[in-house]
Amino acid sequence: MTRANIADHGDMVAAIVETYGRADTSQQAGGRAWYGTAGRMVRSIAADTRTDAERVALALAALSPRNPWRWNVADAYAFAVAARADGAMPGATTFRVNRERAWSALRDGAAAWTSRAPKVRAFVAAILGDHGAVVVDTWAVRVATRGALAEVRDAEYGPVAAAYRDAAAMVGETPAAIQAITWIVAQSEGLASNRRGRHDETFKRGTPPAVVAMFAETGV
User: Fold this and answer.
1) Angle between helices 53-62 and 69-84 (to 10 degrees)
2) Rg value, the chain, Cα
3) Looking at residue 94, what DSSP letter applies?
4) Crossing angle, helix 96-108 and helix 53-62, to 10 degrees?
5) Domain count, the chain
6) Domain range for residue 108?
């Protein structure tokens, strides 16, 4: 699929529905619960650190690139604690520019993110309970384009998100749920990538007990 074909709405909808059709019951349940679980973690961090939940969600989004999920949550917790204490910016398992964005989000709030990419805005919205939000990340693009592309430009985000919304309506899921379900399927199948993160199921050294407890409580 070339970039010219990304406007082929029907083909993207069909690709998403086909991927969804390969999901087993466990993958469906996991996808439907993913954003709700992430939202509970964000609210728990917010409560523990007396921080606005949107700021925590923004920090979580900023710290997510190339960061295993458990490590991502631990980093967000550490950043929220440090920001609340007016301390120094901690280290994190991601790029420095992402650390700086997370730090800015916690200290300055949404005002620091008004010009950020639509993926970040959608990720935060989905975590905070917007079931109509569609996070068009690398895996979502691979699903919609049958592995031909791994990223979209900002101008292409809307058409891909629209394909997910129409696919969701066809199968009776919310847009956020079908994106999460197909994300799980695509990763399990190694679509366009056979690499599995060796830290996906581990906690990084120094993870606060509160974060470990969050994962135990949610069963993630």
Assistant:
1) 130
2) 17
3) S
4) 170
5) 1
6) 3-218
Give the Cα separation of 107 and 43 in Å (integer): 17
Three-state secondary structure readout of 46-74: HHHHCCCHHHHHHHHHHCCCCCCHHHHHH
pTM for this one? Answer: 0.85
Tokens representing 89 are 């910016």
Residues 173, 20 contacting (CB under 8 angstroms)? yes
Tens digits of residue pLDDT in 183-193 = 999 988 875 44
The residue written with tokens 């309970």 in the block is 129
Which residues 6+ apart lie within 8 Å of 211 measured at CB? 70, 73, 74, 77, 203
Beta-carbon contacts of 46 under 8 Å, excluding residues fewer than 6 positions away, are 52, 53, 55, 56, 80
* pLDDT tens-digit readout, 100-151: 999 999 988 766 555 557 888 899 999 999 999 999 998 999 999 998 898 8
Q: Please, what is the end-to-end C-alpha distance for the chain in angstroms?
A: 35
Long-range contacts of 107-113 (CB under 8 A, 24+ apart): 107/83, 109/52, 109/54, 109/55, 109/58, 110/54, 110/55, 110/58, 113/58
Alpha helix segments (H runs only) across 132-208: 138-144, 154-171, 175-189
Q: Which of 122, 140, 127 is nearest to 35 (CA)?
A: 127
